[in-house]
């Protein structure tokens, strides 16, 4: 059975197929491609764009979406094998997931990192439990390791602007009030590498992405003619970039390098002065939500570079493409 919960489920060729279909359907809206189809959406964590865009994709094309919020209207779900269920998790995924598969044609799951470190995030326990026990295809709406639909929307936005994905792009760390998961930067890196981009990843010391993610991205870049450079020099990474992606993420738990507190790294917040170091045609992208004047300055979000709303719209377009792809193969 085919699932899509990580970029490796597509590979570089599959990524290009989804981007092509999304771009075509953005120009020429398909008809009732999801008639009599049901998407079951399971949320362990909150959402705005993700929920709205997936529901819209189903409803606008003749299908339906059932939304379930774990612990708020449904039982809390246990995913650990051999667990003694004497706590607040009343149902195990071993029963819950296949039951949902009897009602829906495919399942979409949103489950954030539990903040237990890079090694646990790499195992992606909840999303992989759904893959193991589901009898229908599973889509990721973000997991501990990746947010693959966001990565696809990011690259579709770059492709629309520059006519190609094989351009210089910058992924730069940004400050926040708390350590955030690495799923979004992971997916941007992986998808950009699968698309052959020249990627510059800039971050303070101690905020390295996990080695497994970096190795996977390097393999994609080698296959697509892309390039990846890691640096602690934000200005150097921005020089001549065609697209700038700023995102906060927490310290590395696998590098062994001590990270400075976020409060001491306010200078990493992108401002208009930062964007002026990029190319004249540069765009700024961000997954949203964004904390203005903490993570990204108003001058960037309200400036001529910003494509964050276009990027959010593109979630809808890539998602109906992946839904259609999975339904066509199931």
From TrEMBL:
Residues 184-323 form the Aspartate/ornithine carbamoyltransferase Asp/Orn-binding domain. It comes from the Bacteria. Transmembrane segments: none annotated. Keywords: Transferase. InterPro entries: Asp/Orn_carbamoyltranf_P-bd, Asp/Orn_carbamoylTrfase, Asp/Orn_carbamoylTrfase_sf, Asp_carbamoyltransf_Asp/Orn-bd. It holds the Pfam family OTCace. Residues 2-160 form the Aspartate/ornithine carbamoyltransferase carbamoyl-P binding domain. Belongs to the aspartate/ornithine carbamoyltransferase superfamily. This is Acetylornithine carbamoyltransferase. The lineage of its organism: Bacteria, Pseudomonadati, Acidobacteriota, Holophagae, Holophagales.
């Amino acid at each position: 059975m085919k699932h899509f919960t990580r970029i490796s489920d597509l590979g570089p060729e599959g990524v290009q197929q989804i981007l092509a279909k999304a771009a075509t359907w953005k120009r020429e809206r398909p008809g009732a491609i999801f008639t009599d189809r049901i998407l079951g959406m399971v949320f362990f964590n909150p959402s705005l764009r993700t929920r709205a865009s997936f529901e819209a994709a189903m409803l606008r094309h003749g299908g339906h979406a059932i939304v379930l919020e774990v612990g708020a209207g449904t039982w809390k779900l246990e995913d650990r094998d051999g667990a003694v269920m004497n706590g607040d998790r009343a149902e195990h995924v071993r029963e819950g997931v296949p039951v949902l598969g009897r009602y829906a044609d495919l399942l979409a799951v949103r489950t954030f990192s539990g903040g237990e470190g890079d090694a646990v995030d790499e195992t992606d326990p909840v999303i992989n439990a759904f893959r193991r026990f589901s009898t229908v295809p599973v889509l990721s709406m973000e997991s501990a390791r990746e947010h693959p639909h966001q990565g696809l929307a990011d690259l579709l936005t770059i492709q629309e602007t520059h006519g190609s994905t094989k351009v210089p792009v910058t992924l730069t760390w940004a400050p926040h009030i708390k350590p955030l998961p690495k799923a979004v930067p992971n997916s941007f890196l992986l998808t950009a590498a699968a698309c052959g981009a020249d990627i510059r990843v800039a971050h303070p010391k101690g905020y390295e992405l996990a080695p497994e993610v970096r190795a996977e991205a390097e393999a994609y870049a080698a296959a697509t003619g892309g390039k990846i450079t890691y640096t602690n020099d934000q200005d150097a990474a921005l020089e001549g970039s065609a697209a700038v992606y700023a995102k906060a993420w927490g310290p590395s738990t696998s590098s062994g390098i001590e990270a400075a507190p976020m409060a001491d790294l306010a200078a990493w917040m992108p401002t208009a002065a930062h964007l002026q170091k990029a190319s004249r045609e540069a765009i700024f992208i961000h997954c949203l939500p964004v904390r203005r004047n903490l993570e990204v300055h108003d001058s960037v979000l309200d400036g001529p570079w910003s494509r964050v709303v276009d990027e959010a719209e593109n979630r809808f377009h890539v998602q109906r493409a992946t839904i259609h792809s999975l339904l066509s193969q199931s």
